[in-house]
């Protein structure tokens, strides 16, 4: 009998956890739809609760603010990016192809949410803004994003100088952010300008990476390393 009771308790706990997870996911999905449809600034937590058909208190129980909902969006998007990247990395050892896949896949994941991401981008350069990619709140996401690039590099067939390999993932992440902001303001049909930007910037970047193996390039590596250290934000 005690064993039977333990099983019943565990089943009850599992059902309770599942229901909580489902409610949290419902609130999250509702919020993302409203952010895109009504606008991030216009949407309120009360509107999200009403649309999700849950109480306002329950909404705040799962997410303390709209910022928390956006951070959850970033986390879920990055989780999917990691999943797809891992699959793609199995098909090629070419670092440039892997890095391009990371960039283009991220943009594809963001495509249906461009409207509210444009609003968030207005304050992206302010590291005190919680949703900035340079904020302390987003540090774990930032390091994870750099980690995706580092993994793509370390497991590729590209041979790099040891000193360059230490800073290259950070440099490429900064480039990736630049392309993302360019895409957010790209008015061209089917984002042709962004596609051209990706092609040309990656072509130039990987030519410079090849040149870095030459002794003459050592003279410029010091300033590059210093710039990376200055650009990195620590909480």
UniProtKB/TrEMBL annotation:
Claim: DNA-binding is one of the keywords in the record: yes
DNA-binding region location: 44-63
This protein's record includes keyword DNA-binding: yes
InterPro entries assigned: Homeodomain-like_sf, HTH-type_Tx_Regulator, HTH_TetR, Tet_transcr_reg_TetR-rel_C_sf, TetR_C_23
Keywords of the record: DNA-binding
Record-annotated HTH tetR-type domain positions: 21-81
Highest taxon above the source species: Bacteria
GO molecular function: DNA binding
Name of protein: TetR family transcriptional regulator
